[in-house]
Specification:
Blueprint: H1 11-32, H2 41-44, H3 56-70, H4 75-95, H5 102-165, H6 174-201, E1 207-211, H7 212-230, E2 233-236, E3 243-248, H8 249-266, E4 272-280, E5 283-289, H9 320-330, E6 334-340, E7 344-352, E8 354-355, H10 358-364
Parallel strand pairs: 2-4
Antiparallel strand pairs: 1-3, 3-8, 4-5, 5-7, 6-7
């Protein structure tokens, strides 16, 4: 019998399914030799599959499939579990020079067929339950974090507005700044959540050709408000107006916006945030450079994991970089990070290069 990984199961647990199954096969063979051979179907189940019917082998095989799933086995190992038993029986018969009759082998195959079918069916059912529970848990966790952050920002904005309404302070003062920051943060949360919904739902991309120059202008316009509110200098480089990318503009804007939000969040106060776009061979690169001071060795890639946050500012869900990477990869791009010790991080969006005019050329072709 082929040796297979038992994943730490004890002998008693391994024998549960096989020992009971062997006993059921023996009883089935015995009943087949009586005057009422059809009584064996109560144990083995009927041949040929079809509509499920109650049988002892079906019941215990289902329990065995559930047990193997709970101990981390794969569905292939569930099938091989019974296949190994069949191989062991035939090998033992050969070694003892015992001939297995055709009817006996037919009955053994019926028992194995029904056992495998029921074990695999229950294995799949139990696995679906585990997956559904995990998805529900992850969804509840994300919804909980999102609701918490939205409530905090909305509460802050409401309080600031109440103070301004009372007339004791002006809209241009510090309280107005609090209101402005809260509204900016609310907008960021909503934009990031919409991008995550699109990526999770697998909605089709709305790809189109557009100028990188125009895209950076839009990105600068939307990010300038947050830069001013937080006290940062935002510098966006000039780029050849003919350089273009062909991607889902909303997803790219969301990804780049997340990178800028991350830069504003972790950079030293009153620092400079830079956005530079340039072409290298057949690629368009967009760098977002912050002044966070750099990262400890080995921490760069960890930032892309969901619910991961670094630094003292723990606001947000810890999903921004994870969503950004998914959005870029969905557009045949790459999002990477380079650590600059003592200075900060450079996040790079790498996309296929196009030029304005490609759209008409493609249409002619």
């Amino acid at each position: 019998m082929e040796a297979r990984s038992v994943r730490g199961l004890s002998g008693a647990e391994l024998e549960h399914g096989i020992s009971v199954f062997l006993d059921q096969v023996i009883r089935t063979l015995e009943l087949e030799r009586t005057a009422a051979p059809l009584q064996s179907r109560r144990i083995s189940g009927r041949a040929g599959g079809g509509k499920p019917a109650l049988s002892e082998i079906g019941d215990t095989a289902a329990q065995h499939g559930k047990e193997l799933m709970q101990h981390g086995f794969t569905v292939e190992e569930v099938v091989h579990d019974y296949g190994d038993l069949c191989q062991a029986i035939t090998d033992l018969a050969f070694e003892l020079d015992v001939q297995i009759e055709v009817d006996e082998f037919r009955i053994l195959n019926r028992c194995l067929d029904n056992a495998i079918a029921n074990a695999v069916t229950e294995f799949g059912y139990q696995r679906d339950i585990v997956v559904a529970d995990q998805h529900a848990h992850d969804l509840n966790a994300r919804l909980g974090f999102l609701a918490h952050e939205l409530r905090n920002q909305l509460s802050t904005a409401t309080l600031a507005l109440s103070v301004i309404r009372n007339g004791s302070v002006g809209i241009s003062g510090a309280t107005g700044g609090v209101l402005e920051r809260s509204l900016v943060n609310l907008g960021n949360l909503i934009d990031r959540s919409l991008a995550e919904v699109r990526m999770t739902a697998g909605l089709p991309l709305q790809s189109r050709l557009f100028s990188v120059h125009d895209f950076l202008a839009e990105l600068k316009l939307s990010a300038s408000l947050e830069a001013n509110v937080r006290g940062f200098t935002l510098k966006v480089s000039d780029v050849d107006p003919l350089l273009a990318v062909e991607v889902d503009r909303d997803l790219l804007l969301s990804a780049a916006g997340n990178l800028l939000q991350n830069a504003f969040k972790f950079s030293h106060p009153h620092g400079e945030i830079s956005v530079n776009a340039y072409a290298v061979a057949d690629r368009i690169l967009i760098d977002v450079e912050d002044q966070c001071g750099g990262l400890p060795s080995g921490d760069a890639e960890k930032m892309f994991l969901p619910f991961t946050q670094a630094g003292q500012d723990r606001t947000g869900l810890g999903l921004g970089l994870s969503i950004s990477r998914s959005s870029i990869e969905a557009n045949s791009g790459v999002l990477s990070v380079r650590n600059v010790p003592g200075t900060g991080c450079v996040f790079t969006i790498d996309l296929p290069r196009h030029a304005l005019g490609d759209e008409s050329a493609n249409a002619e072709q």
